[in-house]
Specification:
This is DUF3352 domain-containing protein. The chain has about 550 residues and is an alpha+beta fold. The chain has helices at about 5-25, 45-60, 70-80, 115-120, 160-170, 180-190, 200-210, 220-230, 260-265, 295-305, 310-315, 320-325, 340-345, 365-410, 415-435, 455-460, 470-475, 495-500, 505-510, 510-530, and strands at about 35-40, 85-95, 100-110, 130, 135-140, 145-150, 150-155, 195-200, 230-240, 245-250, 285-290, 330-335, 360-365, 440-445, 445-450, 485-490, 530-540, 545-555. The chain has 20 helices and 18 strands. The chain has an 18-stranded antiparallel β-sheet, with helices on both faces.
Length: about 550
């Protein structure tokens, strides 16, 4: 019988350890309430291992000549896995400074293992500088750091750290996990391997109190109101063998002063735009567009019009036209990248080349009103674009003349080079603006808008539509009572030569320099080609916007 005692003892210890692991309180239950922002990890070992493998593969493909890069990554992964891989949380809190004003402070804590404790022990003093209950900490280079009872913690503010350690030691005080804003957002989003939480309403209160001391500028008041209305956001990602999934929740503050923003954020609709989008589209981002969206954007443009240096907003009367368009547009908006858009975006020689594959769709609710307004709208914008070219030329010439005058007076070659560079940049921008022209057409109940005739023609071409595409239908996206969705199929593979188009002409034309980038481009191409598409979905429940996405990636 006695020979079974060791086995029974080990079994009992394992059972007790498992039970203890299940009852370990989340770190958020010890942090003070009122965090403005947190970054969190929960059992993130698999994620860290996968990301480390990707980075190691990229460094290997880049061939930087560092033979020990792999071993260094292995050490870093071991340290991170022994700390953040278990659980970690870093929060930004508002604390009262010496002059009574509130200022941000950092508090971070992670569960630590033997490896983390050993490495940190070499940095900490032999004797701790202070103790709060069962926890000790020391001051190290302006920060307050400690490790006790399986936790490692650091803070930029001593009082904040002591408040945290006091809670861990049994002091009754409000905690982050128990605070209603944090709990509501995190409960809706769910626990993720890598997560983030932001309390926009709390941040707005801090900003408003600071600006009140200097008389809150009228221009900034709507910004703070909008920030307050955003409420709270929680979200994150969890890796899987085939990629990763994301989940998020935004709790809109319906008591905020920016009521139109709340209505826009919480809008939903039944989508049909997929029935007019080409099946060959490389990316689609569809959103429920509230009828107030145009007027709301117009008001913001009016606020910043005086600050816009080129006069484009005034010349185009864009704010007025957006408000007018709101009378016949609504509920469905989609930004679409047509076939060839990915490679077009890599063209460094023409930064606006991607516009030839970019179009937008909007549902039309009053075709007669649209026909009456759109010609004036397009003409106003295009005339303003022509005027913008002249403004850019004038500003560039004035600056270049001033630089040249200084260069000739002081015989300064740097000023001469800067002047020549400004002239080249001005010419390039002028060429890009020259190709911009607002064009539009109708297809079914939808207005298609583009800034390239090629893009508009491609969107209007006959062919299969996205709604009938087998892969799109297999994604299972809900189109009823939806706040929005996105879809991107598996893109065509890129080569190192494709990515080389991102390099400036001076680098790509030099064989020696381009050779240095060859390995990096090969590694980047491999990194991108492992992406096999993504889908996302947003829904609304009360005042909560819930988002879920799935990304396919071959680790």
């Amino acid at each position: 019988m006695t020979r079974f005692l060791p086995a029974l003892t080990v079994s009992a210890l394992l059972t007790a350890g498992a039970a203890q692991a299940q009852t370990v309180r989340p770190l958020a239950e010890g942090l003070p309430a009122g965090a403005l922002l947190t970054l969190e990890t929960h059992n993130a070992g698999p994620a860290l291992k996968r990301f480390s493998g990707v980075l190691e593969r990229v460094l290997s493909a880049a061939d930087l000549g560092e033979d020990d890069a792999g071993s260094m990554l292995g050490v870093a992964q071991a340290v991170l896995g022994d700390s953040l891989g278990r659980e970690g949380i870093a929060g930004v809190f508002s604390v009262q400074g010496k002059k009574g004003a509130f200022e941000p402070a950092l508090l971070a804590v992670t569960r630590s293992g033997a490896l983390t404790d050993e490495m940190l022990g070499e940095l900490l003093p032999d004797k701790p500088g202070a103790r709060v209950g069962r926890y000790t900490f020391s001051r190290v280079d302006g920060a307050f750091v400690g490790t006790s009872n399986g936790l490692t913690y650091v803070s930029s503010d001593k009082a904040l750290l002591m408040a945290y350690l006091g809670r861990l030691s049994g002091k009754a005080a409000p905690t982050l996990a128990a605070s209603a804003p944090y709990a509501a957002a995190q409960r809706a989003a769910g626990t993720q391997e890598l997560g983030v939480y932001a309390n926009f309403s709390a941040a707005a209160k801090v900003i408003r109190s600071q600006l009140a001391q200097v008389m809150l500028p009228r221009l900034l008041s709507p910004v703070v109101d909008a920030l307050d209305t955003l409420g709270q956001f929680a979200g994150g990602l969890t890796t899987t063998a085939g990629g990763w999934t994301t989940a998020s929740a935004q709790v809109v503050n319906q008591a905020g002063k920016d009521r139109p923003l709340a209505r826009i954020l919480l809008d939903t609709t039944d989508f049909e735009v997929q029935s007019v989008i080409p099946a060959s589209a490389e990316a689609v981002q569809a959103t429920a567009c509230h009828l107030d969206t145009g007027a709301y954007l117009g008001r913001w443009l009016t606020r910043v019009d005086l600050l816009e240096p080129f006069g484009f907003l005034t010349d185009s009367q864009l704010a007025h036209h957006l408000e007018q368009a709101g009378r016949y547009l609504g509920h469905e908006c989609a930004q679409v990248t047509l076939a060839g858009g990915l490679k077009a975006a890599l063209n460094q020689e023409d930064p606006l080349a991607s516009l030839a594959t970019s179009v937008s769709y909007q549902r039309v609710t009053d075709r007669a009103a649209a026909d009456a307004h759109l010609p004036e709208y397009a003409r106003s914008v295009n005339e303003a674009l022509d005027g913008l070219r002249g403004t850019v030329k004038s500003l560039a010439k004035t600056g270049m003349d001033a630089l040249m005058d200084d260069a000739m007076a002081d015989v300064d070659p740097r000023a001469l080079m800067l002047g020549a560079g400004m002239a080249g940049a001005s010419q390039g921008l002028d060429e890009s603006l020259k190709g911009l022209k607002m064009v539009y057409a109708f297809r079914g109940d939808y207005l298609i808008t583009a800034f390239s005739q090629d893009a508009l023609d491609a969107a209007l071409a006959d062919g299969p539509v996205l709604a009938d595409d087998a892969a799109f239908r297999a994604a299972g996206l809900s189109m009823q009572a939806s706040a929005g969705w996105s879809y991107q199929p598996d893109p065509a593979d890129l080569t190192a030569q494709d990515l080389a188009g991102m390099l400036p002409r001076e680098l790509s034309g030099d064989k020696a320099l381009s050779g240095l980038f060859a390995g990096a481009m090969t590694g980047a191409a491999d990194l991108i080609n492992r992406f096999d598409g993504t889908t996302s979905q947003r829904s609304v429940a009360g005042n909560v916007i819930i988002g879920k996405a799935s990304v396919r990636y071959r680790w």
